[in-house]
Amino acid sequence: MSLQLLGLSDVRGSLIALDHVKNVSNEEMVSIELADGSTRIGRVTEIEGERAVIQVFEGTDGMSKTNVKTKLLGHPMELGLSREILGRTFNGVGEPIDGLGEVYPEKFEDVNGKPLNPVSRVYPRNYIQTGISAIDGLNTLIRGQKLPIFSGSGLPHDQLAIQIVRQAHLTGEDSENFCIVFGAMGVKNDVADMFRRSFEETGVMEKVVMYVNLSDDPIVERMLTPRCALTAAEYLAYECGMNVLVILTDMTSYCEAVREISSSKGEIPSRKGYPGYLYSDLASLYERAGIIKGGKGSVTQIPILTMPNDDITHPVPDLTGYITEGQIVLDRDLYLKGINPPIGVLQSLSRLMKDGIGEGYTRGDHQDVANQLFASYAKVQDARSLASVIGEDELSDLDKKYMEFGRRFESIFIGQGTHTNRSIQETLNLGWALLSTLPASALDRLDPKLIKQNYDPEHAERTIALALEQEEK
Question: What pTM was computed for the model?
Fold first, then answer.
């Protein structure tokens, strides 16, 4: 049953307050009618006894305490869902903005999701192939995982997101049962157009659902965008049995919206002005990834966030790192060298990688190759530090080989470009080719049997040359 009230007790910024309100619920939706007959939508964000504070989506311009009728709708925000949402573009609250008409929903779901019993979760296994060697080979994305990308201002995280959407797919019998939900928060018009145009031109839009909140859209809509995206993902996964990859960019914009609304409500700030409940707020989004026992589908998350001043200890990346299962870090030094995508593999980590690779998933030697590439690249950093002191000409022969290995590893393996799509076999073969440029005695993380089977310096140069040709194309 809905309830209508006349007048307001307070108007402050984008917030309005009502006194003597009974039986109101947190997150309840509100319809607000102004004196001129226009209506606006709001959401209850705070309840203090019989006082309710409401966030107005379109702002409070033109409102006074006497000319407003407020109708409590008796339900939280709900999203209309059906399989028709695939291939469509919506705004941050789920309204179509692609000119293709309304979606006829099969059901409505609360955007806040449903509590998931931890016992009903299935441990994530099997991988999602992104076609990007630095991810697939060294920081593998596992189905049902939440693996964020930590970026910085000016780094090409948008291009990386487009590349992942364009190339990501499953292998095996579930390969066709895959889709992507893309949520963009606080992006500029040209960036939103770039996302939409890129997906349409590459022919992947039919498997993508987009929720776009622009930088000039209401702040409260920005807080709802990831919830709408995840609600759609849960429907496609658990109702339609699909494996869904959710990409959310930029979570820092979302957190700034949370901070702004918290400040307008007069809440006591914590680190950097963010509210003390930011951790639990982010967890309510990130923990909506996973696989449910007995279900056919899965929800995998790649949240993208920009670190202010490249500070990984900033509250947003810091709290995100606590909740999620690893991180992909974009490196500014690599970007300045012209390496794209500039993934810093030594700073990156996929905590679930070990359980979704190897025999039966990727290839039997995957873990060994990844360990040796990590170890060899770490020694490259030691050789570079030494060269900065004594000069490269004074290095030992082995250190000089590490220097050359490092240059090739960065330019070919990591810097594969935005249009090269490598299979996991190509990635691992290229890893072996690069390791074969080092002396066999330096490969101390590999089983001698594997070295005997795969170590081939002569064939390595041909494999590396072929990889360079693919990048040039």
Answer: 0.92
